[in-house]
Amino acid sequence: MPDADPDDDSTGARIAAQRKRAGLTQRGLALRIPYSYSLLRHVEAGHKKASPQLTAAVARALDIPVTALIGPAAHALRPHRVAALIGPVREALDLYDLPTDPCLPQAPAAELVAAADGLCRDVRAARLQLAAASLPSLLVDLIVACRERPTTELWRALASTCRSAHDVATKLGYQDLAALALDRMGWAAERASDPEFAAIRQYKRALSYRSRTARHHIGLSMVADGHRILKAADGGEATRVVTGQLHLAAAVLSSRAHDLSGVESHLAQAREIAERTGEAGHVHWLSFGPANVAAHETFARLELRQFDAAYAAARSVRAPRGWATSRRAAHLVDQARAELETGRTDAALASLTLARKLAPQQTRFHPRVLDTLRGLLHIRRRSPQALSRLAAWAGL
C-alpha cells in the first residue's frame, strides 16, 4: 500500500490518509484502537502530536507497516541514534521511587493496559525503534497510575512494560539498562502478587549469565528460584509455559558451561511440556512451544560444537503461524551459524539476509551476526557482492 501524500509528511496527515484508504471514518477507527475519537480527531488535524503508542495502535488496526505512518526515514535505526533513544528510557525507570506530579493527565487503566500489551507486540515484531520511543511516556504514565490508583492489573502492566524495556535494552546491547529494567520488573511484579511475572523475571535474569565468561551456576540458581516461585502459581497452562521456558534457559546456560547432560535433561523436560501445550506464543508473549524448543536446541548444539546436530535441529524448526518475528529472526542467525560450520556458505548468507529482511533493527545489533559474517568473509576470500553489502551494513 503506498504512503500518504509525500507533500505532507506529518504523522497525523498520514493517519488520515491511510484511514480514508481503509474506508473508515474517524469514529470507526477510534473504535478499533484504545484511544478516543476526540484525540484521534485532534491528531489528524495536527493540533496534537501522535504518540508512538497511538501510532503503533493505528498501524495494527489498519494492518499496515508503521513506516506508512511515520515515514521510512524516521523508522531507520542507526547506531549513533541508539543512545538518544535509550537515555529517556533510563530516566523513566529511575522515577519509580521519586515524587511525581499527581495532577498529570492520567489515561484510563484499560488504555494503559492495552498500550503495555501493544508494546510487547512491537518488541516481538522487532520494531525496536518504535518500542524504545514508546517506553518513556508509558513507563511514567504507569508509575503515576500505580501510585495514585494502584490495582493488580496496573501493576502487571507496569511489570510487563519494564520487561519490554529489558528486551529492547538487551537487543540494542545495553546490558546495564537491561539489568535495571529487570529490577523494576521485580518491584512491580511483587506488588502485583504475580508469581508468573516474578518467575519470568528470573528467567530473564538467568539469561544475562549466558556469556562465555559468566559464572553459569549463578544463572542456573536463578532458574531454580524461578521454579520455586512458580509453586505459588495456579498450575494452569501459563504456569506450564513459564516452567518450560525456564528449562530452555537452563539448557542454554548448560551449553555455555559445556554440560551435555544438563542440556539433554532440560531440553527433554521442555520438550515434554511443549508436547502438552502446543504452540503457546499467546502466553506471556514467550513464543513457547515445539518450535522454540528446537530453536533453543540449535543454539545449545552450536555451543557444544555439535555442528551437524545443530544444523539438523535448525532444519527441524517449523515456524508456527504467528511466531514472533524477533524469535524467527534470532533463529535464522543461529541457523546461519550452523550452516557456516557445516560448509553451507550460500545457505548461511541466505539465512542472514532473510534475518535482516525480517528484523533489520534487531539483526544489525545481534553479536552472533558479526561472528558469522567474519567467518563467511574468511572462507570466501572473493566475497560476492551480497556478502560485502551485508558486512558493510552490519559495520564490518
UniProtKB/TrEMBL annotation:
One of its GO terms (molecular function) is DNA binding. InterPro entries: Cro/C1-type_HTH, Lambda_DNA-bd_dom_sf. Pfam families: HTH_31. Residues 15-69 form the HTH cro/C1-type domain. Coiled coil: none annotated. Signal peptide: none annotated. This is XRE family transcriptional regulator.
